[in-house]
Design a protein that fits this description.
This is Calcium voltage-gated channel auxiliary subunit alpha2delta 3. One of its GO terms (molecular function) is metal ion binding. It comes from Cyprinus carpio (Common carp). Residues 243-425 form the VWFA domain. With 1082 residues, the chain is of the alpha+beta class. Helices cover 32% and strands 22% of the residues. It has 30 helices and 40 strands. Strands 7, 8, 9, 10, 11, 12 and 13 form a 7-stranded mixed β-sheet that branches. Helix 8 links the parallel strand 7 (242-249) and strand 8. Helix 2 packs antiparallel against helix 22 and helix 8 (257-271) packs parallel to helix 13. Mean pLDDT is 81; it is low at 1-26, 109-114, 528-539, 775-779, 888-963, 1028-1034, 1060-1072 and 1074-1082.
């Protein structure tokens, strides 16, 4: 009986609050909110449809429905066609390089040509008496549009010499002399292919000849850091891929300046490694110390991030004890051998770089065991300091192992001496006379003056470089393998994009290309990052892996197929962030890919399912189309190529519309995309009536009397735009919209405008409303409304165009508050009103951003930050979905994750002994934690149980890695039109109503203010750092090695080893014995 009473008591307690919920619920009648939403929706749609002309444009396209042909896009056929176009473009660049290389050979024989030496720093400089400086002189520079309006000389090249080199050194002067003939070659190349930009020759002696000529300016200290020989294009062209182990002596004798020079030497060696190379650094005294303990027993790819990390670790080295070089050499040889057997490295050249102040013996026993007789591992000793007591031993090591010995006495000696090893590694390639063409991945070279000036003006400029080695062809020096230098030319990524017809890829479609290493050459997501509304450069634009942007491909199926140069297709659902990462579009993409022949690149095309898989062709007379194309309100996409105006000088200053007219007038030298211009003429005719329609609205003074609607605009699938102002330009609230200041809202080379893309995902006939997330709060005072125009009634119909308007936020808000004061009561007395203090009214969009609120400071704020309890409930009820978009590129690139474990290891090691006694207790505590999301994302349990007392070992040790961040984004569920909810707070129940605004992406939210739910806290869009338990082996991404490899050659003169001239007789005899053993092994 007592049990029954208890049950009745708790039942009454349970019923009581729900009775209050009903009473509260009656305070926000759903019917009233629905009335408000309906009234506002009808009013705002009427305004948007009227001023945008959406119904008129839809009608016009319907009138032409019978004259258009809808085609489904064949993805494989499309990607092969685009790859063919890129192949032709790349081939033209490669041909220019080959011509330059041939000219270098020819000029090495022909002497006595005219000679002038224009030093890039000294040109147009005067001394105190007003005279031109030596190696300077007057050098005419004029701004040139093709070179981004930089001041250049199209007739002559200039020569840059690094600051640490004497610009009148005989070797440099001789090299500059014979390379002078390249001026004419550069000019002729540019005439044949006017799309060429910078052409250059990087000499093995260190000077850099660049065309067109441009002024170079040292930094504030008078220093030019640029040395062409440590640019990636030079390194890739000059040498074959290599695996390198760097041994650094940290014994007690290396203290002070010697250790400083050693660090700089290692850093300079790292500068000479490229993306096809692998390396590790081992410091030694009585023990071995991997500079990065996490990478014990393996090599890592020499990408920019890994090299920078190892540089930082060099500062942690300190000298003490005795140097055990035999132990270090043994470790290096075993490491190279074991890593080579895995097949993960370069599988080509191998080298040991030894940075030390001496060696007490030659350690021939180690070399005999690991390297003789084949001598497949070259040894390059760098003697640090002025003393030469042990120099002979180091010289012997170099000569006996096909390496090169140098002595580095001061910091100023480092750069030149390090470069010597590149000449040795290039010998086999030179002797084979192999002109391997190399292409780099996309990168930003901000060390050259043109890159610095362009970055200041328009942000980082991405480019790839095609390069080829130049070597001596004299038979008498053949076995020395003399490398003269490398020729190259830059290809901006923007030019690659011109080969991609964006109109054939659809609204969300895009093309992308990757290298043999899986690194991105071009991808629309490889863009400048934003921080507090301003652009900032990523730490490195190079070495960005495809998996960092197509991150939903968890198994790397797409990436690996492209790396292996396959042709095929792949599908997956993706989440694409837009509007500076604040919104997300959920799409289903089909990917098609193939290789670009003659290059290390593969091309991919992504097409979104639905409307993105269809294309239509219209058919109208050229005369009719040209007439409407010339209307003053017509604009064509600035970055799209309707006609190529860059191939001939007489076309350079033509606008695209003028070029189209000239093309139809029979200009034979003008190449145009016939399909694109046919379709843009069709769109010009169909959209022409809107010009007169908008003009009539603007002239009618009774319409838009309060000037709430400021701009009407449209865009079509062919990049055609029309814009009409209903107010004077100086009266525009947001004057930056559609001007190109924000590239996300205009047609660009790789994407449709944001308003176009978002409208395409709305139900046909509806409008999508939003506040622009621009820099500066003043731009939040407008609302944009846009709608898509479908060609057919079917759901998968191609989208022909999109229209929209810009209106004042104040005008938009006034319409909302007016609608929210309506009621259906016969006596006119409303039961509730948004004016009441008991309720709060909001208007939010489908991504949860507030457009209208009583508190104006909340405009543009995420709804969860203002009403955390309600937003949490909406998510839990399914009214809004929370998506997480992972960002690798904003944190650490996945390929460079090895070393992150050390961050945790270093922090924990000092405290692990203290914590071990509490481990069991905390493990029990963790098992009771119920925040599943936290455990998944931080993986605290696995983190605690990782064995932090054991140093990294060989093989695939598991490590903890904070590798990326998740950025939450919210999207409303389309099928849920209205929701009534109740939230149990600490001492009350909070009720709310959410109602969709008809024909829009907007929702009206009405919330009971009488219940305080502030204990819930806000729901934010702050990123979440994710911790994974990862295995070291999983970091070895698939890569395709270069097609050629030249590790050694039997004709190579290995006695050219840097110190052979100074060898003592006894050491000379020993080296000869080694060579005999090598040639006649037992």
């Amino acid at each position: 009986m007592k049990c029954v009473l208890h049950c009745i008591f708790f039942l009454l307690l349970w019923i009581t609050p729900n009775t209050r919920v009903c009473a509260s619920h009656q305070g926000i009648p759903l019917s009233v909110v629905k009335l408000w939403a309906s009234a506002f929706g009808g009013e705002i749609k009427s305004i948007a449809a009227k001023y945008s002309g959406s119904q008129l444009l839809q009608k016009k396209y319907k009138e032409f429905e019978q004259s258009v042909r809808v085609e489904e896009i064949d993805g494989i056929k499309l990607v092969k066609k685009l790859a063919g176009k890129m192949e032709q473009m790349f081939h033209k660049k490669a041909e220019a390089i080959k011509v330059t290389v041939f000219a270098c050979f020819k000029q090495r024989v022909l002497l006595g040509l005219s000679y002038e030496y224009f030093n890039a720093v000294l040109i147009n400089e005067m001394d105190e008496e007003g005279r031109s400086l030596e190696l300077g002189g007057e050098f005419i520079l004029q701004p040139n549009e093709h070179f981004n309006n930089l001041s250049v000389n199209l007739s002559l090249s200039v020569v840059q010499v690094p600051t640490n080199m004497y610009n009148k050194d005989s070797a440099i002067v001789n090299g500059v002399y014979w390379s002078e003939a390249l001026n004419k070659v550069f000019v002729d190349n540019f005439k044949r292919d006017p799309s060429l930009i910078w052409q250059y020759f990087g000499s093995a002696k260190g000077f850099f000849r660049q065309y067109p000529g441009i002024k170079w300016t040292p930094d504030e200290h008078g220093v030019l850091e640029f040395d062409c020989r440590n640019r990636k294009w030079y390194i890739q062209a000059a040498t074959s891929p290599k695996d390198v182990v760097i041994l650094v002596d940290v014994s007690g004798s290396m203290k002070g300046l010697r250790l400083t020079i050693a660090r700089q030497t290692v850093s300079s060696i790292l500068d000479t490694l490229g993306d096809d190379d692998f390396f590790n650094i081992i410091a030694y005294n009585e023990e071995l110390h991997y500079v990065e303990p996490c990478l014990n027993g393996t090599l890592v790819q020499a990408d920019v991030t890994n090299k920078d990390h190892f540089r930082d670790r060099l500062d942690k080295l300190f000298a003490k004890g005795i140097g055990m070089l035999d132990m270090a050499l043994t470790e290096a040889f075993e490491l190279l051998s074991n890593f080579n057997e895995t097949g993960r490295g370069s599988v080509c050249s191998q080298a040991i770089m030894l940075v030390t102040d001496g060696a007490v013996e030659t350690y021939d026993a180690v070399f005999a065991q690991y390297n003789w007789p084949d001598r497949k591992v070259r040894v390059f000793p760098y003697l640090i300091g002025r003393e030469s007591a042990f120099a002979d031993n180091l010289k012997w090591m170099a000569c006996a192992n096909k390496g090169y010995f140098t002595q580095i006495s001061t910091l100023a000696d480092v750069q030149e001496n390090v470069m010597e090893y590149l000449h040795v590694l290039s010998r086999p390639k030179v002797i084979d006379r192999e002109h391997d063409m190399v292409w780099t991945e996309a990168y930003v070279d901000n060390t050259r003056p043109q890159a610095q000036k362009l970055e200041d003006a328009q942000g980082p400029v991405l480019m790839t470089t095609v390069a080829m080695p130049v070597f001596s062809t004299k038979n008498e020096t053949r076995n020395k393998g003399i490398l003269l230098g490398v020729v190259g030319t830059d290809v901006p990524v923007s030019e690659i994009l011109k080969a991609i017809p964006k109109y054939k890829l659809g609204i969300h479609g895009y093309a992308f290309a990757i290298t043999n290493n899986g690194y991105i050459l071009t991808h629309p997501d490889l863009q400048p990052l934003y921080e507090e509304g301003k652009k900032r450069r990523k730490s490195s634009y190079s070495s960005v892996d495809l998996s960092e942007v197509e991150w939903e491909d968890k198994e790397d199926e797409l990436r690996n197929a492209m790396v292996n140069r396959q042709t095929g297709s792949f599908s997956m659902k993706v989440k694409k962030t837009v509007d500076k990462g604040k919104r997300v579009l959920v799409l289903h993409n089909d990917y098609y890919y193939t290789d670009i022949k003659g290059t290390p690149f593969s091309l991919g095309v992504a097409l979104s399912r639905g409307h993105g898989k269809y294309f239509f062709r219209g058919n109208l007379s050229v005369e009719e189309g040209l007439h409407d194309l010339e209307h003053p309100d017509v604009l064509l996409a600035n970055e799209w190529t309707y006609c190529n105006t860059e191939e001939h000088p007489e076309h350079i200053f033509l606008s695209q519309i003028d070029a189209i007219k000239l093309y139809f007038n029979g200009e034979p030298h003008l190449k145009c995309d016939k399909d694109l211009i046919q379709e843009v003429l069709f769109d010009a005719v169909v959209t022409a009536p809107l010009e007169a329609y908008w003009t009539s609205l603007a002239l009618n003074k009774s319409e838009n009397s309060d000037k709430g609607v400021e701009v009407a605009y449209l865009g079509t699938r062919t990049g055609l735009s029309r814009i009409n102002l209903f107010v004077m330009p100086d009266q525009l609230t947001n004057q930056d919209f559609l001007t190109g200041e924000d590239k996300e809202v205009v047609f660009s080379a790789d994407h449709f405008p944001l308003w176009y893309k978002r409208a395409a995902e709305q139900v046909p006939g509806t409008f999508i409303y939003s506040l622009p997330f621009n820099t500066g709060s003043e731009n939040k005072s407008v609302v944009l409304a846009s709608s898509s125009i479908h060609l057919l009634d079917e759901r998968e119909s191609p989208i022909a165009a999109a229209v929209g308007i810009q209106m004042k936020l104040e005008f938009f808000q006034r319409k909302f508050w007016t609608a929210s004061r309506q009621c259906a009561a016969l006596d006119g007395k409303c039961s509730i009103s948004c004016d009441n203090d008991e309720i709060s009214c909001y208007l939010i969009d489908n991504n949860g951003f507030i457009i209208v609120a009583e508190d104006l400071s909340l405009t543009g704020v995420f709804f969860g930050e203002a009403e955390g309890a309600v937003m949490s409930k909406l998510v839990s009820m399914g009214s809004f979905k929370r998506y997480y978009c992972t960002s690798h590129s904003l944190f650490w690139p996945l390929l460079s994750m090895y070393f992150i474990h050390l961050l945790i290891y270093s922090f924990m090691h000092a405290f692990v002994c203290l914590f071990l006694s509490f481990q069991h207790l905390l493990s029990l505590l963790i098992s009771f934690i119920c925040f599943h999301r936290f455990l998944v994302e931080f993986n605290l349990y696995s983190w605690w149980h990782s064995d932090l007392t054991i140093k990294a070992q060989r093989g695939g040790k598991t490590m903890l890695v904070p590798c990326d961040k998740e950025y939450p984004a919210f999207v409303s569920e389309r099928t849920i039109k209205e929701t009534v909810g109740n939230i149990d707070c600490e001492s009350c129940v909070k009720s709310f109503v959410i109602q969709q605004i008809p024909s829009s992406n907007l929702f009206m939210v009405v919330i009971d203010n009488t219940c305080d739910c502030s204990d819930f806290g806000p729901v934010t869009m702050d990123p979440i750092e994710i911790m994974y338990i990862l295995n070291k082996k999983t970091f070895q991404k698939d890569r395709r090695r270069p097609d050629t490899c030249h590790p050694f050659h039997h004709e190579e003169n290995s006695m050219e080893c840097g110190g052979s001239v100074g060898l003592t007789p006894s050491l000379t005899s020993t080296v000869l014995i080694v060579l005999i053993v090598t040639i006649f092994p037992r």
